[in-house]
């Protein structure tokens, strides 16, 4: 394991060194700045500690690559099944970014700012609804660090494995109502047409903060 970690670390550190040198030599090169990969963004913010950057990069690659790909695959699948919702989201994106159907990909990318994203409330709701029905991690397990007792009185012992199932929880009518198995982004929209977050104990796709867990 140590040998493998060393190989990965050396590879990432090499990328960081090369990117740092490239950006320092090409500050006026617009092609470099427009690339806007995650490493370039952190370097632009003067975040230059190699270990910090290495940890960030690996976290995005390991924790974000497959989960993001899986979620987007299910999201586009749901869009294909609900073309009216697809058009509603596309219209929201057009209004938030100010682009039109003749805009280029580069124009679209440049128009996606934090302010524009804040206006995409229905898109946020649709992605969250996708995660409710098709969580990136459908089953998750934990190991008890010590003897404990659940709120309902069930006792667990140190070393016991305890699993919970976000996939099943996302379809429980006791949590989401009789339409639990329906794809309905509106359940995440409040009366002001803004995205409404649910308790992480109910919507467990991103898990509950570790400080709140009982294990």
From TrEMBL:
Keywords: Iron, Metal-binding, Oxidoreductase. Its cofactor is heme. It comes from the Eukaryota. One of its GO terms (molecular function) is monooxygenase activity. PANTHER family: CYTOCHROME P450 (PTHR24296). Belongs to the cytochrome P450 family. This is Cytochrome P450. It comes from Solanum tuberosum (Potato). The gene is LOC102600809.
């Amino acid at each position: 394991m140590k040998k493998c970690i060393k190989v990965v670390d050396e590879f990432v550190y090499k990328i960081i060194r090369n990117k740092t040198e490239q950006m320092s030599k090409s500050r006026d090169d617009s092609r470099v700045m427009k690339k806007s990969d995650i490493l370039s963004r952190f370097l632009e913010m003067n975040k230059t500690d190699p270990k910090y950057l290495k940890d960030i990069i690996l976290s995005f690659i390991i924790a974000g690559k497959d989960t993001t790909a899986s979620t987007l695959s299910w999201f586009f699948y749901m869009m294909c099944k609900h073309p009216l919702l697809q058009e509603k989201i596309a219209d929201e994106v057009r209004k938030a970014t100010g682009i039109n159907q003749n805009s280029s990909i580069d124009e679209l990318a440049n128009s996606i700012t934090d302010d524009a994203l804040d206006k995409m409330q229905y898109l946020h709701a649709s992605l969250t609804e996708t995660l409710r029905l098709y969580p990136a991690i459908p089953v998750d397990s934990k190991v008890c660090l010590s003897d404990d007792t659940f709120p309902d009185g069930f006792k667990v012992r140190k070393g016991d494995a305890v699993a919970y199932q976000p996939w099943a929880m996302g379809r429980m009518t006791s949590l989401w109502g009789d339409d639990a198995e329906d794809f309905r982004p509106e359940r995440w929209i409040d009366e002001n047409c803004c995205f409404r977050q649910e308790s992480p104990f109910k919507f467990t796709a991103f898990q509950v903060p570790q400080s709140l867990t009982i294990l």
